[in-house]
Amino acid sequence: MILLLTLFIVIYLLIAFLSIYFYNTKLTDIARMIFGAALIVFAASMLIGHSGSLWVILLVAALVINIEITAFKFKISDLKALQILHIFTAMLAVMIIITSFML
Question: How much is the pTM?
């Protein structure tokens, strides 16, 4: 379960990175949003029965929202905010994985 969630997060971050910085088209934006929604649904369905799973689901939702904010800040060229968002994204991914191990 934890390995699948970790793999899903890594794939989502890779898709988000590519869609924001290299292949900035409508199709990749839609794919990033669909994959983010799928990540939230996947985390919710995998962890729904465990105690403390609400925190992991909320962290996954925060990660998806953070990626969408990063896409917006890249479009308006706010470089200082992008640095902060990248650090926050990395910390959220680590927090999700660590919290999943604790379940």
Answer: 0.89
